[in-house]
Write a structure and sequence with these properties.
Elements lengths: L3 H9 L14 H16 L31 E9 L16 E8 L5 H14 L4 E11 L2 E3 L3 H13 L1 H9 L6 E10 L2 E9 L6 H18 L3 E4 L12 H6 L2 E10 L1 H8 L3 H19 L8 H12 L6 H4 L2 E8 L2 E11 L11 H10 L10 H26 L3 H7 L3
Antiparallel strand pairs: 1-2, 3-6, 3-8, 4-6, 4-7, 5-6, 8-10, 9-10
Helix pairs in contact: 1-2, 3-8, 3-13, 5-6, 9-13, 10-13
């Protein structure tokens, strides 16, 4: 078998390209050879990067030109009390998560987990939070070229009358995904078709892309439209977009809790009225003045940490930041809620297959497909939403009590 040193020599001599190494050795040897090449080229030791706890072959579907792994500190918060007191009934049967969960979070930001845990302790003392996935649909929006608005109208009309044919084409590519609908948009001689899919327990971006490609062939065959790009950015994936904040993408999930006023004072050292004012002036008015799509304190913090820990597509934290935090007083108590319009999560496929991320999902009891399909990913979304709510409560409490700076100082962060 060819050694890593020999492979590195061949790359440095120009005999092999760096992406061809797996053709000549197993995945771990190839990764070692790449590290040697980079070490020789840069003079930097990659000893730590080379210490990873899984076979490199495991990550073949997740990365190219692998040289090792970056380790991010992983912690845990909880218990996260989600729909804890719900009993199966016509009112609660749509809750996917129920009980107490420990949520792994990966981050390099000191004080984040401590803050989320503080919020969770308040939620737990208040009896736990409720959470629901209110809408689900992964989108892909191809763009077509037409000669003019007459052809655009003809295309849109045909699509509206032939959704069944497009559904049959799209669903022929998957045994799990279901086409929920197609929303057309016309801009001059461009026609955008926003396909939405129920992707069950998968985040579903690849599933939606492959299915939409099949449907596009039917559109091209039957209408005057010609496909320009399979993604026309009306999806919209991994970019700040108002359409995701309004229509949702992936899972739209909301969590709320009502906290007794005395508990707010005892645990958060402030009052419901002060937290409500801070939320209004900071998260609502301040965000509006800034032209922000997210009206929250730091929802992306919890979403990003949960994504890294559980193997989600980390770039989609952009959409996860489309969160609105609402606060109100109710007879001296504090009502608090977060609504995440576009939380794109899955419990199968992608990075969820990596060993550490799979273990994190096992901690939650949500690894793999749910029964019925889709319930595990729904439950993960609900748990993340409650943790996000906890983060909002804790930060707003710190701000309204003027303890934010001192908390970071005390933790040495």
């Amino acid at each position: 078998m060819t050694s890593a040193d020999d492979l590195a020599d061949r790359v440095c001599d120009g005999d092999l390209r760096i992406h061809e190494l797996e053709d000549h050795a197993d995945h771990d040897t190839a990764a070692t050879a790449r590290r040697l090449v980079i070490e020789r080229k840069t003079g930097v030791s990659l000893e730590t990067i080379g210490e990873y706890a899984f076979p490199a072959e495991t990550a073949e579907a997740n990365i190219e030109n692998m040289i090792g792994a970056t380790q991010i500190p992983l912690g845990v918060v909880g218990p996260v009390a989600v729909n804890r007191n719900s009993q199966p009934s016509s009112e609660t049967a749509d809750a996917a998560a129920s009980g107490e969960y420990y949520l792994p979070l990966a981050t390099t930001e000191g004080a984040l987990l401590a803050s989320v845990n503080r919020g969770l302790s308040v939620i737990d003392a208040a009896g736990g939070a409720s959470a629901r996935v209110t809408k689900s649909g992964m989108t892909r929006a191809p763009v077509f070229r037409v000669e003019g608005v007459a052809d655009a109208a003809e295309t849109v009309e045909w699509v509206g009358e032939n959704v069944t044919a497009l559904r049959d084409a799209a669903e022929s590519t998957t045994s799990h995904g279901e086409l929920l609908g197609i929303e057309p948009y016309v801009v001059g001689d461009s026609v955008y078709l926003r396909f939405a899919y129920d992707t069950k327990d998968a985040m579903g971006m690849n599933m939606a892309t492959i299915a939409t490609a099949e449907a596009c062939e039917v559109v091209e065959r039957e209408t005057p439209a010609s496909l320009v790009a399979l993604s026309g950015n009306l999806c919209s994936d991994k970019k700040p977009a108002a359409i995701n904040a309004v229509e949702g993408r992936g899972r739209s999930v909301t969590a709320d809790v009502c906290i007794p006023g005395d508990l707010v004072e005892d645990r958060l050292h402030t009052t419901p009225e002060a937290i409500v004012e801070a939320n209004t002036r900071k998260n609502l008015t301040g965000s509006a003045k800034a032209g922000a799509l997210g009206f929250n304190a730091h929802a992306a913090n919890v979403v990003a940490a949960a994504f890294l820990a559980t193997g989600q597509d980390e770039a989609q934290v952009v959409e996860g930041a489309n969160t609105i935090t609402t606060m109100d007083t109710r007879d001296g108590d504090l009502y608090a809620a977060v609504s995440l319009a576009s939380l794109e999560v899955g419990t199968v496929g992608g990075g969820t297959r990596l060993p550490a991320q799979a273990e994190a999902l096992e901690v939650l009891g949500l690894r793999g497909g749910g029964d019925p399909p889709g319930t595990n990913a729904d439950a993960l979304a609900e748990v993340i939403a409650v943790a996000t709510l906890a983060g909002e409560l804790s930060l707003l409490g710190a701000l309204s009590s003027r303890h934010l700076a001192s908390a970071h100082e005390d933790l040495g962060r």
